[in-house]
Amino acid sequence: MDTIFAQASAPGRAGVAVIRISGPQAFAIAQEISGKRPEGRESVLRNLRGTGGEVIDQALLLSFPGPNSFTGEDVVEFQLHGSIAVVRAMLSLLSTFPETRMAEAGEFTRRALENEKLDLAQVEGLADLIEAETEAQRKQALRVLSGHLGARVEDWRKDLIRAAALLEATIDFADEEVPVDVTPEVEALLSKVGKELQAEAEGTYVAERVRNGFEVAIIGAPNAGKSTLLNALAGRDAAITSEIAGTTRDVIEVRMDLDGLPVTLLDTAGLRESEDKVEAIGIERAIERAEAADLRVFLAAPGEALVLTPEEEDIVLQPKADLVGIEENGISGKTGQGVSELIQRIQSTLSERSSNIGLATHERHRVALQQAVSCLAEVNVILTRGPDFYDLAAADLRFGIRTLETLVGRIDVENLLDEIFTSFCVGK
């Protein structure tokens, strides 16, 4: 296996730059460059020298002997001064060593997966942690990276293996009298695991929203003050405001951090009948995005007919409250009246939804969980047909177990790996 290296810190000028080496030659290369072979887990200050003996930089050298390292291999990190010239010189020097090459995107993490330092769900959690922008995203990604989902999968797997073993024992002794009817225990195990799998699958919808962001659409008639309200919520002129109705033609998006939750506010075209083809396209898009949004804020006067029907948690406010003298349930993006209260209502609603968050965070997770639930439902149906069909039930149960194993990357995930690791930076 090649020894790989890459800059693990962000490119460009900085106070410190980190270059990481992993593989069988890592310690030998460190010895060649620093003049001394690393001994165990140590951190020492060394002069790093090139092939001609010239000093490239003075750096902190950290060593992590395998298998007790991130990748499971011998790993060395150099903390250099963050000069572009220093980093370039070090990377050029490392490329001269035999059987040593620049790492591909995500290759350090891929080796951690191959050496069983992480499971596939943890790899996805690490990618999410690197991409996290808000506190809720950070906490969610850290839970997955910590291995909580893998631990749950292992618990479910043990229960299902127990159920399959009971069924197969009955099959093995079909010609003899089995002293205990295993059906009640099998049904209890299937019921327990099935309910937990279903709850986890349902929680992925919220988890995906925390990972990708909630969408909140501002809806109303033309010239209802939607763009002014968006600007007030964003704290900047994100949308053009005008006295002319129909100014907003396309959906304008503003991403915000509301109490740690990622939220994208959508300013939509005013909803009305229009013969203007461009405006009509904008209205059609506005309706589509509003229907797909997680929450809608309607700006409408009392008794005003609404193109869309508000759902239970949607918010309906009377716009331009400063002009009509409305205090209760009124809002004005121009004066700020009711804006703070609206932000609090959005935060409260989305935070309540986030309380149902699951450990599974990706669509791939949800598909695997739902497939496992379907398998268990089929097993329950087969069990009602009697012991003569227990071999079919056991086969379906084994398939359900394999489905859960794909969730954490134990089997049949080679086709997913390239897609997952391309999202990583080279030094990770």
Automatic annotation (TrEMBL):
- Give the keywords, sorted: Cytoplasm, GTP-binding, Hydrolase, Magnesium, Metal-binding, Nucleotide-binding, Potassium, tRNA processing
Q: Where is the TrmE-type G domain?
A: 213-351
Q: Where in the cell is it found?
A: Cytoplasm
UniProt gene name: mnmE
Entry binding sites for K(+)? N223, S242, I244, T247
Copy out the cofactor comment: Binds 1 potassium ion per subunit.
- Organism listed in the record: Sulfitobacter faviae
Q: Which residues take part in binding GTP?
A: 223-228, 242-248, 267-270
Described function? Exhibits a very high intrinsic GTPase hydrolysis rate. Involved in the addition of a carboxymethylaminomethyl (cmnm) group at the wobble position (U34) of certain tRNAs, forming tRNA-cmnm(5)s(2)U34.
For this protein, the record's Gene3D superfamilies field holds:
P-loop containing nucleotide triphosphate hydrolases, Probable tRNA modification gtpase trme, domain 1, tRNA modification GTPase MnmE domain 2
Q: Family membership, please give it.
A: Belongs to the TRAFAC class TrmE-Era-EngA-EngB-Septin-like GTPase superfamily. TrmE GTPase family.
Annotated HAMAP family:
GTPase_MnmE (MF_00379)
Q: Which cofactor does it need?
A: K(+)
**Superkingdom of the source species:** Bacteria
Q: What is the lineage of its organism?
A: Bacteria, Pseudomonadati, Pseudomonadota, Alphaproteobacteria, Rhodobacterales
For this protein, the record's NCBIfam families field holds: mnmE_trmE_thdF, PRK05291.1-3, small_GTP
Q: Which residues bind Mg(2+)?
A: S227, T248
Q: Which GO terms describe its cellular component?
A: cytoplasm
Which GO annotations describe the biological process of this protein? tRNA methylation; tRNA wobble uridine modification
Q: Which Pfam families match?
A: MMR_HSR1, MnmE_helical, TrmE_N
Q: Which InterPro entries match?
A: G_TrmE (IPR031168), GTP-bd (IPR006073), GTP-bd_TrmE_N (IPR018948), GTPase_MnmE (IPR004520), MnmE_dom2 (IPR027368), MnmE_helical (IPR025867), P-loop_NTPase (IPR027417), Small_GTP-bd (IPR005225)
Give binding positions for (6S)-5-formyl-5,6,7,8-tetrahydrofolate: R20, E77, K117, K428
What is the official name of this protein in its record?
tRNA modification GTPase MnmE
A molecular function annotated in GO for this UniProt entry is: GTPase activity
Fill in the subunit field for this protein: Homodimer. Heterotetramer of two MnmE and two MnmG subunits.
EC number(s) stated in the UniProt entry for this protein: 3.6.-.-
